[in-house]
Amino acid sequence: MKSLIVKSSRALSCWRYRILVLALVGALLYLHGCGRPVEVSPLTESAVPPWQVLTARAEFVSLEETLLNPPFSTEILELAPEGVMVKAGEEIAQLSPGDRTGRLESLSADLEQYSLTVSRDRNLLRMIAEYEASNAQIAALELEAKDIENQRAVQSRDWQRIVELSESVTAAKVRMKMLHLQLTAAAKMADRGFVSQQELVDSEKDLVVSNIEASLTARLLPFIEEHADRRKVFDAGENLAKAQLSKELATFTAQKNIADYEFSYKEAIRKMNQTATNVVELERQIASLSINAKRSGLLIYGDTYDGAEMVKTRVGAQVYPGISFLRIVDMSRCGLGFAIDQRDVAAVASSSHFYFRADAFPERLLSGNESQRVPVALDIPQARPDGRTQVAFKVPVASYPAGFMPGLSGSVYCYDFVSEHLARFAGNRQTRLVRRPFKRIMSVTGDVKTASAALVISGIESKLTHLEEEGKSIEAGAVIATVDCEEISQSARDAEIELNKKNEEMQLQIHKNALEDERLAMALKVREGALEVARLKHATLLKSRDEDKIIDLKRALELLDARIALAAEKVAHVSTLRQKGLSSELEFMQAETELAVLKKDRAITANELETEDSGPTRRSIKLSELDVRKAELELQRATHEAGMTGFRNLMNLKLLEAEIKKIEMTLGNLRRDEESASIKAPAAGVLIHNELNKPAGGVGKARVGDQVYPRVPFMQVADLRNLQVHAKVSEMDVKFIKPGDEVKLVLKGASVRSFPGWVSSVGMVAVTNFKTRQDAVIPVIIDLVSPKNGKTAIDAAFRPGTSCEVEFKLYDLPDALHLPFDAIVPLATATCVMLPDRQLQPVEIKFSDGLNGAVIASGIDAGAAVLLMEAKHD
């Protein structure tokens, strides 16, 4: 913005200000409807107070506007006309989905894969929990069985042998007694010579041997009664320890496997949710391609980038995020935007007067009643003085006249401008109003462009390998450029290889699934057979009896009873004979020994019969029941394993099908990208190369070897049958231009000829850039086709990219009442002139021109004298 001009002086005495205040009050009373001109007291040159002037260049802006940005880089398909009043929610633009549809299909395929993965992992997590529970139960049963076997090994004794040893000890006592008597008798007989010495030695030997056997048996019996079989105890303890370790290992393995499956499940959910979020975002972006007005207001086109410069938004143009391509402004909430030097912020913030005088409407004054300081200090480049920091202000205005458009520039006065301006008429400089012709012709430079040009963009990012020459006439569909697609071709070949690999993998998976199903079916049959065998063994155990052995034992027991009875009779008979002296004590002891041996055999046989007849023990039954339960659990585990393996194989097959579908989609996209490497003309016309920002720096037209990017046009096909001239007209002149006006075009370098043109459109917004020029400009588009007959009178020299002079006839009044610019007294509610008697006379201005003054429509007659500002204020 233009830097401030700050002037300060000492305050005047009170009586001087009172004179000026009276003059202002008189003027305001007249403007508020007193109906008569108000006399203003004359001020002499010495009475004019030196004002503290705070001015700045300002811009007329809308204080409430909505900027619309595209959700992503795309193309405009439909667009509402600029300058229309739109309502909130009304559709104002339609954008192309671009590559979002393909990306949505790709992400949807990924989402399908992740959904299958989540379903697989969720069911596998449930199945692995059941499978590991079966494993844990089997391990617990194994531990219980081994514990029972260990207890049996620790507590078990060889009861049959214990009975045998016990009875042997009893029989040995009787036999020892008999052998002792026999040895005594043999010794006596040997002394008498009736027995040989060898027989005596044999008797002594029998006694010693029997004594040793009896001693060994007596010592072995307590040991066997107190101690179990050490080998059996060791084996049982070792098996119990192994079962305990197996149970702990099963618990650890179950936790690890479940944790692994749970991690896979959560990871699959994370990927699925992330992909689903991306899908929702893409769907939202595609749904947002219909741009609706967020508020009611005036629709104004923004700018977009055509590859080299910012151009006005139009149908078919590429739009980009971050660049507002549409604006909706609320024209009922307008004001002023300007910047003040930081040293004057306090004075401006405390000011109660803000007046704006637009360059395009110098006869009117806009009044602001409050200020809004933007809380950001801006270091504005090219500000004067250099390096000064500016602070931005916004001041709303209550009303403004018709014809004001956003962007108009002018001067803002941060003080009582009305009083200061009236003081400029302190002298007697005056003129008389006269009627005279009022005419003005203005010319600006315009650029010839196509009214309809098809932009050429590359579908992929790559380097140009071929480019048709600029200016060449081409037909629609002709190849005009090619880009390097070797990487895409290689990717397509890799995708084909991957597709073939996946198809082969799917066939192998199908064959593997069939073999797995067969194997698992056989395993189930084996487990079912094992369960049936365990149940049969258990039933057999409960009913198991060796009837033949029982019969043999009973018969042996009966025989032994008979023999014991005979032996007992023999003992009784020998005892009777002994009492009569007919038998010796030795014979009696021999009979006793025979009876003891028979009783021992009977006790052993009776114990064996009792053991055989009593059936299985509780431990044996418990172990058999555990074997049956184990077989059931193994069948259940095999069923879980079969279900889990079958489900995993089925889901893997579905995932392979989804992967194949995704690869086919990717391959199709690569083939399309490969085809798009040959860029074809979207329409018939003349080829024009765009100016591009080169990666190495600078701007230039596309050449072979340059990098091109999607959504960035690098060429255009122009229709030379429909050309336009784009010009930028000053804000002070544009109010005289309207659509349909005829203009004269003079091509530079061929000024001997001129061609007619017709104004097609006038911009709705003025563009202000105080860095380059002090006034705002408005774009004006001129058609070369006559609206009357549809013909054009230009020659072949008119081509896109050339420049021409555009001559506008702004106004041509043969008889107009002229008002000099120095005589205008702008007020907030009316335009006045000051009469020689210091009265303010309101007048109606038909239009004003900063170069020629104004044309009065009514309010004063020709010949009337009006005061002019002093020359030093011009």
Q: How are the SSEs ordered, and which strands pair?
A:
Blueprint: E1 5-7, H1 14-34, E2 53-62, E3 65-68, E4 74-79, E5 85-86, E6 91-95, H2 100-155, H3 159-192, H4 197-226, H5 230-287, E7 290-292, E8 297-301, E9 303-305, E10 310-312, E11 318-319, E12 326-329, E13 334-341, H6 345-349, E14 354-358, E15 366-368, E16 372-378, E17 390-396, E18 409-413, H7 417-422, E19 430-432, E20 434-450, E21 453-456, E22 462-467, E23 473-474, E24 479-483, H8 486-543, H9 547-579, H10 585-614, H11 618-676, E25 678-680, E26 685-689, E27 691-693, E28 699-701, E29 707-708, E30 715-718, E31 723-730, H12 731-734, E32 742-747, E33 755-762, E34 777-783, E35 803-819, E36 825-826, E37 831-834, E38 840-849, E39 853-858, E40 865-867
Antiparallel strand pairs: 1-2, 2-13, 2-18, 3-12, 4-6, 4-11, 5-8, 6-7, 8-12, 9-10, 13-17, 14-15, 14-18, 16-17, 19-40, 20-31, 20-35, 21-30, 22-24, 22-29, 23-26, 24-25, 26-30, 27-28, 31-34, 32-33, 32-35, 33-34, 35-39, 36-37, 37-38, 38-39
